[in-house]
Amino acid sequence: LALFLAVSALTTSYWCEGTRKVVKPFCTGVVTTRQSFCIMFNSSNINDTRLVQYIWETGEDKYVMRKFHTGIWFSCEQNINMTGEKCRS
């Protein structure tokens, strides 16, 4: 039993789970629908921070909460569009 617990502790990536606040990236490409996981520009060709469109209702609209879990060997984090996850060792 002790050997099984030791092996499972070393191979799992769920030692620590949680969420972290990450700054949303800028929307890229042609945007036809409203995307909630990126920051929209008022203009598509100019990279100027004064042209970024924010919604100031909650004050947290430029951040997204991403889930993660980590262990000794692996660390996984939810993708920015909230579909799937990206793991690294």
From TrEMBL:
Signal sequence extent: 1-18
Stated name of the protein: Uncharacterized protein
InterPro entries given in the database record: GSG-1
Alphabetical keyword list: Signal
Pfam family, one: GSG-1
